[in-house]
């Protein structure tokens, strides 16, 4: 290792750092992965292709940029592209593949069969439009990876030039397709980058395993890292410092996301119009249950998450997200610490509002009313329906009070975890329980085109001793 090229380390935010590896190091790591560490090339390819598709999906929504051309080379990089095309198809995109020099090996033949079974078009170079901008929103450069040496031969030399010209021409970013390069922008030197400055300048670079030295020269807005299974022995041997993958993600962003003009973030909503005559329930609780059931059926994450807004006696508002525990004709229930800020607000001013926002359905529901505590019996029931870890956490957290650090929470949690390790009943804290908001007002909002949104409101009244609901439509 004494003679190996020294890797470069670039600082990131929050004092993190990342290692950039040389072409030789990349080859050595691949040999180790597919040798003594027991990985197969198809495993690496599957992980790489999924990482690429996930990175694309994170930046470019399929609803806005659906037409994708994946240009595959004859080697492993091309195989990564075939896998990415398959995943993009399942993600809701409409990929096409240009694969001029097909590799006659069972692995690649199988990958072709897989995309053909999904009716993904396979285009020859001659089938491609003269202007790629006319038919494609995204171009995936899967031609050459880190093992490529020499000068690209036909037809790849011309394809690389065509992709490079899209960035170097007079077209604006709004009319040019976005370019995504897998591991190495094709035509770049693996260690030195785009030497003559005439190469592809991708919008997204998805580095695999670890970013290569040329990636330091990458100036595009989105740099991701994929292939999430590097064992500790490789990390230690090559002293790799790589960013942590969030949650279950198959890719992670390197560096900061580009700055965005907030005023440019717009959405021209599309949804069936809501007509009062026959599409709306006369009772708002029934209407809410219908929409909530549809949010659950749509697979939305935590459709019961709701913004709770309160204000104390001085009228200063505050909002936070809570999880709805129950909804019925008596109201909406959530649980919290009775010494928290929201609890103090409610003790001074029992009026509050709830806001549910279901982005994927272009819907929101606003509920206003009076709040009161639920019975102690209900609070006990809610408390013991929680996971034991959450029960202990409720005891540990004196919500909204100042603490010196997380270590205080961890220490007390460990002590209580040990205390109740025998499975005995964990007592509910006296200062923990539920609240119920009894609604007086509902607004159901459905996004529509040209900002002509639907806004249907229910206001409560009383007739013959019974609660009645008046429905009106508000201008958007």
TrEMBL record:
Going by the record, the broad EC class of this enzyme is: isomerase
Q: Main role?
A: Catalyzes the epimerization of the S- and R-forms of NAD(P)HX, a damaged form of NAD(P)H that is a result of enzymatic or heat-dependent hydration. This is a prerequisite for the S-specific NAD(P)H-hydrate dehydratase to allow the repair of both epimers of NAD(P)HX.
- Coiled coil segments of this chain: none
Binding note for cofactor: Binds 1 potassium ion per subunit.
Which domain of life does the protein's organism represent? Eukaryota
Q: Can you state which reaction this protein catalyses?
A: (6R)-NADPHX = (6S)-NADPHX; (6R)-NADHX = (6S)-NADHX
Assembly notes: Homodimer.
Tell me the residue numbers annotated for binding K(+).
77, 141, 186
Q: Where does (6S)-NADPHX bind?
A: 76-80, 145-151, 183
Q: Domain named YjeF N-terminal: which ranges? A: 26-241
Q: What is this protein called?
A: NAD(P)H-hydrate epimerase
Organism of origin: Ilex paraguariensis (yerba mate)
The entry sums up its family as follows: Belongs to the NnrE/AIBP family.
Q: Which UniProt keywords apply?
A: Flavoprotein, FMN, Isomerase, Metal-binding, NAD, Nucleotide-binding, Oxidoreductase, Potassium, Pyridoxine biosynthesis
Q: Which cofactors are named for this entry?
A: FMN; K(+)
InterPro entries in the cross-refs: Pyridox_Oxase (IPR000659), Pyridox_Oxase_CS (IPR019740), Pyridox_Oxase_N (IPR011576), Pyridoxamine_oxidase_dimer_C (IPR019576), Split_barrel_FMN-bd (IPR012349), YjeF_N_dom (IPR004443), YjeF_N_dom_sf (IPR036652)
Q: What is its EC number?
A: 5.1.99.6
Pathway per the UniProt entry? Cofactor metabolism; pyridoxal 5'-phosphate salvage; pyridoxal 5'-phosphate from pyridoxamine 5'-phosphate: step 1/1; Cofactor metabolism; pyridoxal 5'-phosphate salvage; pyridoxal 5'-phosphate from pyridoxine 5'-phosphate: step 1/1
> HAMAP family, per this entry?
NADHX_epimerase (MF_01966), PdxH (MF_01629)
Q: Which GO terms describe its biological process?
A: pyridoxine biosynthetic process
Gene3D superfamilies in alphabetical order: Electron Transport, Fmn-binding Protein, Chain A, YjeF N-terminal domain
Q: Which PANTHER family match?
A: PYRIDOXINE-5'-PHOSPHATE OXIDASE (PTHR10851:SF0), PYRIDOXINE-5-PHOSPHATE OXIDASE (PTHR10851)
A GO MF annotation of the entry reads: metal ion binding
């Amino acid at each position: 290792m004494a003679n190996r090229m020294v890797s470069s380390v670039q600082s990131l935010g929050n004092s993190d750092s990342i290692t950039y590896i040389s072409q030789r190091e990349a080859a050595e790591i691949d040999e180790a992965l597919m040798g003594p560490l027991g990985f197969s090339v198809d495993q690496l390819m599957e992980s790489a292709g999924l990482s690429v598709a996930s990175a694309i999906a994170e930046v470019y929504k399929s609803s806005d940029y659906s037409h994708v051309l994946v240009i595959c080379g004859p080697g492993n990089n091309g195989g990564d592209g075939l896998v990415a095309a398959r995943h993009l198809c399942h993600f809701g995109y409409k990929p096409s593949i240009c694969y001029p020099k097909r590799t006659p090996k069972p692995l690649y033949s199988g990958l072709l069969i897989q995309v053909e079974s999904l009716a993904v078009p396979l285009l020859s170079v001659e089938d491609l439009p003269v202007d790629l901008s006319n038919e494609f929103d995204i171009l995936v450069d899967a031609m050459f990876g880190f093992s490529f040496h020499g000068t690209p031969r036909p037809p790849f030399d011309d394809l690389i030039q065509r992709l490079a010209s899209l960035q170097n021409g007079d077209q604006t970013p709004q009319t040019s397709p976005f370019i995504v390069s897998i591991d190495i922008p094709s035509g770049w030197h693996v260690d030195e980058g785009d030497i003559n400055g005439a190469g592809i300048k991708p919008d997204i670079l998805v580095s695999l395993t670890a970013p290569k030295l040329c990636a330091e020269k990458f100036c595009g807005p989105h740099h991701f890292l994929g292939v999430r299974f590097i064992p500790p022995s490789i990390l230690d041997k090559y002293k790799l410092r790589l960013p942590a993958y969030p949650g279950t993600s198959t890719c992670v962003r390197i560096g900061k996301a580009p700055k965005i003009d907030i005023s440019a973030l717009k959405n021209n909503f599309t949804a069936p119009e809501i007509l009062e005559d026959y599409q709306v329930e006369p009772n708002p609780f029934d209407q809410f249950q219908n929409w909530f059931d549809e949010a659950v059926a749509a697979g939305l994450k935590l459709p019961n998450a709701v913004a709770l807004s309160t204000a104390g006696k001085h009228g200063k508002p505050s909002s936070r997200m809570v999880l709805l525990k129950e909804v019925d004709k008596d109201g909406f229930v959530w649980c919290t610490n009775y010494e928290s800020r929201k609890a103090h607000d409610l003790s001074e001013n029992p009026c509050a509002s709830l806001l549910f926002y279901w982005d994927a359905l272009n819907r929101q529901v606003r509920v206003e009313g009076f709040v009161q505590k639920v019975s102690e019996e209900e609070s006990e029931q809610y408390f013991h329906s929680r996971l034991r870890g959450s029960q202990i956490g409720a005891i540990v957290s004196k919500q909204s009070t100042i603490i010196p650090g997380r270590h205080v929470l961890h220490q007390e949690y460990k002590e209580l975890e040990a205390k109740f390790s025998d499975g005995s009943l964990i007592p509910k804290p006296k200062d923990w329980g539920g609240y119920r908001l009894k609604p007086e007002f509902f607004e159901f909002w459905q996004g529509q085109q040209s900002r002509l949104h639907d806004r249907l409101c229910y206001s409560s009244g009383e007739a013959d001793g019974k609660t009645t609901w008046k429905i009106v439509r508000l201008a958007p």
